[in-house]
Amino acid sequence: MLLHRSLKTTTAAAAAALILATGTVLADPVTDDELVVNGELELATEAEPAAHLDGALGDRIYSGWRFRDTETRAMQKDDFDNPMFLFVDAGLEAWDTAEGTEGKSCADCHGAIEDSMKGLRASLPKVTDKGELWSLENFVNDCRETRMGAEAWGWNSQQMKNMTAAIGLQSRGMPVDVAVDGPAAPFWEKGKEMYYTRFGQLEMSCANCHEDNYGNYIRSDHLSQGQINGFPLYRLKDQGPVSIHQRFVGCVRDTRGETFQAGSQEFRELELYVASRGAGLPVETPAVRH
Amino acid sequence: MFRMAAIGILAIGTATGALAEVAPDDILWQEDGSIAQSLTGTPGSAEEGERVMTTNALGNCVACHTIATMPDVPFQGTIAPELAGAAGRWTEAQLRGILVDAKRTFPDSFMPGMYKVGPFIRPGVAYTGAAPASPDDIEPVLTAAQVEDVLAYLMTLTE
């Protein structure tokens, strides 16, 4: 059905009729499973789309969890089975560890991570007092460099993912709620334009796969809506944690395109726009995918 | 239109011999997005075409298309039309055009141009994610011969 929209000529319409006749199935998100973590925390995996989506994703938005296989879905239901918790624990330890010339730990200034970082993940990226659009990684490095006298962590470094996983966990269950208006508006517009730009030699936009074709299979991959409410997440294929921008790099590279750098202005704008497409979905950090 | 195409093939055949290859930018497009003239002047191999169609780094047609005539290929895509019967729906010239640059047949198609070198937005060198040193370094996804091989396979899909 989704394909129908791109079929313009009469011959193509005939081809579309053929698909319907031969019964190509649209493999929709799974409907017979619920994400209940540790037997107690219920996380909704679908929500009503925000008004700013203008109907782009129809009448439902879905977590990527709904497009993964049974085993992968099960791993995210129990924190003992979720490999990300190894990294969360390392992040919590770093939270309490003094570093840098000031000899301070995150906890020295912020206190308990459960209190001070609660809800933060759901609101990022956001515009700072100086008018810049910052991701969680920017905030962490700013404290390290300007307040602790410590070295910045690499955007995709293990330490950074440990910390963003530990911080993100504090918002688990809270609905994604990023600001898209006011000072965020121009960044959001740029991210949106990027989302619909057909990059690379294969001339594919994010929307070609994650809007026009979610629910379909591209070879063995069951295409999701490309939501980021579970990041950083454990990717079974990489046997390790993956950051939001790392995932973006991979998707642009797969269009035979020249990627943008993790942490770049472009990817932070794209992150804001993609986050806003998931507004209303609960934060799942740290998720498991394959 | 038909006569023009015939002259094209004749010219290739006599002037430059069977090995002449039409470069992506020299293709003689018909208005409907078809290409009458062979890209190589030599008939392709359907067997080789099947390999190109099922190899990830080459045509990777099965990523999007279901192809009933290749039942042994696992995990076929569900994005694009079943290819069985394609030769009954399209002429050889139309199929060549769809392969070279499907957007000339289906405006805004999701199907990538297989023998196209631009213009692109931020093209990279294959799947490295890196920019080419110069725009001239961009190679088409398939060679002219591979396009003719795939075409030879598609022409076997008469029902």
TrEMBL record, chain A:
Gene Ontology cellular-component terms listed: cytochrome complex; periplasmic space
Cytochrome c domain mapped to chain residues: 91-176
Active-site residues per Swiss-Prot or TrEMBL entry: C251
GO biological process, one term: sulfur oxidation
Keyword Signal: yes
Cofactor: heme; heme c
UniProt cross-references to InterPro entries, sorted A to Z: Cyt_c-like_dom, Cyt_c-like_dom_sf, SoxA
EC number: 2.8.5.2
Protein name (database record): SoxAX cytochrome complex subunit A
Domain of life (superkingdom): Bacteria
GO MF annotation terms: electron transfer activity; heme binding; metal ion binding; oxidoreductase activity, acting on a sulfur group of donors, cytochrome as acceptor; protein heterodimerization activity; thiosulfate-cyanide sulfurtransferase activity
Self-association state and partner proteins as the record states: Heterodimer of SoxA and SoxX.
Residues that bind heme c 2: C206, C209, H210, C251
Catalytic activity field: S-sulfanyl-L-cysteinyl-[SoxY protein] + thiosulfate + 2 Fe(III)-[cytochrome c] = S-(2-sulfodisulfanyl)-L-cysteinyl-[SoxY protein] + 2 Fe(II)-[cytochrome c] + 2 H(+); L-cysteinyl-[SoxY protein] + thiosulfate + 2 Fe(III)-[cytochrome c] = S-sulfosulfanyl-L-cysteinyl-[SoxY protein] + 2 Fe(II)-[cytochrome c] + 2 H(+)
NCBIfam families referenced in this protein's UniProt entry, alphabetically: thiosulf_SoxA
Signal peptide span: 1-27
UniProt keyword terms in alphabetical order: Electron transport, Heme, Iron, Metal-binding, Periplasm, Signal, Transferase, Transport
TrEMBL record, chain B:
PROSITE patterns linked to this entry: CYTC
Region forming the signal peptide: 1-20
Record carries keyword Signal: yes
Pfam families in the cross-refs: Cytochrom_C
Molecular function terms from GO: electron transfer activity; heme binding; metal ion binding
Heme keyword on record: yes
Domain called Cytochrome c: residue spans: 44-158
Keywords: Heme, Iron, Metal-binding, Signal
InterPro entries xref list: Cyt_c-like_dom (IPR009056), Cyt_c-like_dom_sf (IPR036909), Thiosulf_SoxX (IPR030999)
Protein name from the UniProt record: Monoheme cytochrome SoxX (Sulfur oxidation)
